[in-house]
Structures are given as structure tokens and as C-alpha cells.
Amino acid sequence: xxxxxxxxxxxxxxxxxxxxxxxxxxxxxxxxxxxxxxxxxxxxxxxxxxxxxxxxxxxxxxxxxxxxxxxxxxxxxxxxxxxxxxxxxxxxxxxxxxxxxxxxxxxxxxxxxxxxxxxxxxxxxxxxxxxxxxxxxxxxxxxxxxxxxxxxxxxxxxxxxxxxxxxxxxxxxxxxxxxxxxxxxxxxxxxxxxxxxxxxxxxxxxxxxxxxxxxxxxxxxxx
Amino acid sequence: xxxxxxxxxxxxxxxxxxxxxxxxxxxxxxxxxxxxxxxxxxxxxxxxxxxxxxxxxxxxxxxxxxxxxxxxxxxxxxxxxxxxxxxxxxxxxxxxxxxxxxxxxxxxxxxxxxxxxxxxxxxxxxxxxxxxxxxxxxxxxxxxxxxxxxxxxxxxxxxxxxxxxxxxxxxxxxxxxxxxxxxxxxxxxxxxxxxxxxxxxxxxxxxxxxxxxxxxxxxxxxx
Lengths: 223, 223
Fold this sequence. Notes:
The first copy, chain A, is an alpha+beta fold. Helices cover 54% and strands 8% of the residues of chain A. Chain A starts with a strand and ends in an 18-residue tail after the last helix.
């Protein structure tokens, strides 16, 4: 049985969990708080980051969410998430990296810092300006999603792909932390409702981070 | 014919060029200075980063060095750089991402900022403390390379892989900018001499960034 080291508000672990859910791969979640820099976890992964997946029976350790997604894409045929030609796959990977990198740096990371780490690690109040900057950046990313959906059913093309999982994972954490305003983003909202309706997504939405409640409509399908 | 947007000291473009060289894929380099934020280039890639590859005839644009490497790995059989089982490939990707992310953030990026951008963009002198921090971090990474080579011929296993290309690309830029001291890193040095000897590597070593000369032994095989 695979073990998945993660914590409830890690967007990269969520991307992996969505992929495992779509592919029907079972795993046991193991709670890891990377900010504690636990020695045993650093021995497992020198970067100290989650997600990490471990299969003790086969002696396999997978580090980094991109590495994990490529591994299961290569080894499990069900629900391919890198579909199509090499060019199609390049577009899927480009968008997944875009959300993993740019959306995370501009929105998810500052929200996690202000609303989670400051509360549970630094015992400080969030910085209002940093929160406003993140919410402003989120509007630009929702505009970009609207633009992609003008031409496509899913973010990278005609089928759901790793790009949708990466984007939905980041957005779901930003939404949990109150950083998303769907106003005048009807297309992005419609796409996100489709994502939220997936059986792979429902269990993630019911999880809570202790002491940090989500907004009232966080789990709702009717935004 | 592929066009590759890059500048001589971009480590990610170097990784791509090493892979294209090993695979025998021809391309025309196009000089792009991402810090100028040229409108036409931002239209091509909204992140504003190099490398980008364009094939006008086929209407294909490839963005991001990881995306580009996966694309040519999938479409060109010669000189496979993601060799072996899914687990072997996971280890190759893990290490390539390690050098792309951690080595870059701790060493290459600060060296480029202090020794290149401050000279050609900001017209400032480099900060000695930042340079010393980068050189100290480089020692830790060379230790890690020594450790990997205790058990392996190449960084990720028995054959040269994308991990070696990613590491050598970062190290070659750090070396150009005076950030690498090979003292007491015999194994890493031996591996780097092997990398430098590759026909794919030689053309990169002869390129210069205007106004920024490399150290005297930068091109030498006898370090």
C-alpha cells in the first residue's frame, strides 16, 4: 500500500490526490507538517517538502508532485491525464507547471503564509496588503482560465488533464483561504463546479485544517 | 527548423541545448534577454522566461525547459535521457528538478543577479555576502554529487540522463560566474570533466556574455 505524506492545505498533495483518485490508486494519507522540519522526514526527502509517496514493500520512494504524477501516468493506464500527441502533452505540462509555479507563487503561497503559517507557527496577524495582492493576482489567473475556456472544453484541450488537476488543486486551497472571488468569471466558475463534482475531489473538500475554517460556500457546488 | 530563444548564461536553455546536442536535433539560437520584457516575446510566452522553442512551419511553440526536454525525449529516440523503469525515471526527474529548483535558487540565481544583472541592468556592484553565501551553498551541492557518485556512474544511475544535463547546466553557469571551487570534490570534478568532454557541451563553453569574462580555467578539461 502506498503511503502519501501530506497536510490538508498542501496544493501539490491535492494535485497528486486528484490524480490518484481519477486513476483509482489506493493510498494511506500520512500527516506531515513540513514547517516542523522533522528529522525522519528530512531523511526521506532532503528538500523537506510534501508530497512524498512511499511503498515500503517494494522499497520505492517518490519525491516531488510532478515526479509522482508522471510515475502514475506511466504505470496506470486508467484515466490518462497526459493525453494526445507530444504537442498536446507539451501544452498540458506547460499549464500544469504554470499553475504549480506562477499561481502558487503569486496566490497560494502568500495566502498559506498569511492565513496558515502566521496563525499556527509565527503567532502573528495576517498582513492585509499581502492578502489584497494575492486576491488581485487571482483575478488575473481567473481571467486566463476564462480565456483558455473560450477555445477549449478543459484547460489544455478536449479532455480533462493534469492541467485541470493542477489548477483546481491550487484554486481549492486559495478558495479555502478566502482568496477567490468568482464574480464576473462565469466560465472559470462553471469549469470549477465541474471539477468539484468529480468523485476524486469530494473527499478533499470535506477535510479541514485545525483552527482554520473555510468560508461557508467552500464545499458547495452551487457557488 | 526549430528556433531556440535563449541567452548565453541561461542554465535552463543550456540544459535544453545539451539534450538537443546529445539527440542530434538541429536548431537556430535566437538571442533573447528576458529582463528587457520585450512585448513580442511576452506574447510568445506570458511568463517572459527563456527557453522557448518555436517551429514556425509546423506552428508549434514549446515553453519551459522541462516541457521541452520531455517533448524531445518523446519524439526523438536517439540518446534517451529518461532511461529505465518508471522508478528509474522518477529518480532521474527528481534529481533534474532538484538542480533546476534548489541549485538554481541557492547558487545560480544569486550569482546571475550579483554578477550579471547588477552589471548590465542595475549598474551596481555585487554584494560580497550574497556571493559568499552562494559559494558556500555550492559546496553542499558538490558534496551531494560526491555522495551520489559513491554508488553510481552517473548522477541518477548507470547511464547519463537528464539529471546529469540539468546539473552540468547549472554548474557550468555557476563556474562561469566564479562560484565553484572544486577543491576536495574529486568525484564531482571527475564527473564534470566527463560532461565537459561531450561534443554537446563544447560549443556552449566557447560562448561569452558581453562584458562578463569567465575565469581562466573555465573551458579547460584539466581543472
